[in-house]
Design goal:
The protein is an alpha/beta fold. Among the domains are: about 40 residues, no CATH class; about 90 residues, Ribonuclease H-like superfamily/Ribonuclease H (Nucleotidyltransferase, domain 5). Helix content is about 45%, strand content about 15%. The chain has a 5-stranded mixed sheet.
């Protein structure tokens, strides 16, 4: 758990004790050193691969009172590969953002769709010369709404999802209470 989430070894020790597993923080540390890299590699391998079409968009935001350009990249499935922030919105910043998007990837999208800004086209020609670049404001709607999930993901499911979550939490609480009763451990506060 400590390899995947930002919790300390002692927090993992307490979580395991809650579930009736007796382990020390040193045992957790050793297992993270032994299995952590393999676990991270497996998570990286299972990460969803970005789609064939990337939609790129830039928007201005204020960070500590100064304007910055937030570059959003979204594939056709709604996955967000990265969201780099730049101080400017010119060819150099667009080139840096594209390189940051491609860093560590073995895959280059065949199609990139951007707004009609000249800096985006110049950066795409520089960084991705063999990629089809389409400049269109209507096609880039997926990047404009990157913070919204796709419509099919939440069509009329809000109440059902809330009921399922409530039932899951109640069942989990009952399971933990049963484990505590069987193992004779008490809940950690």
């Amino acid at each position: 758990m400590s390899c995947r989430f930002a919790v300390s070894y002692r927090d993992v020790e307490e979580l395991l004790a809650e579930r009736g597993v007796i382990a020390t923080d040193e045992m957790v540390r050793r297992s993270c050193r032994k299995f952590g890299q393999a676990y991270a590699n497996e998570l990286r391998r299972r990460r969803p691969r970005p789609g064939d079409t990337w939609h790129l968009d830039g928007v201005f935001i204020a960070i500590d009172g100064s304007q910055r350009s937030l570059w959003r990249a979204v594939d056709q499935d709604g996955n967000v590969p990265a969201i780099p922030v730049q101080a400017r919105r010119d060819k150099r910043a667009a080139t840096t953002s594209l390189r940051e998007l491609l860093k560590g990837r073995t895959y280059v999208p065949p199609v990139v769709i951007t707004d009609k800004r000249a800096s985006d086209g110049a950066a795409a020609r520089t960084v991705l010369p063999r990629v089809a670049h389409r400049r269109h404001t209507g096609r880039n709607h997926r990047a404009e709404n990157a913070h919204h999930p796709p419509a099919s993901a939440n069509a009329g499911c809000g109440a059902a999802r809330a009921r399922a979550a409530t039932a899951y939490r109640q069942a989990s609480a009952e399971r933990f209470a049963t484990r505590r009763a069987v193992t004779g451990t008490s809940a950690l506060a």
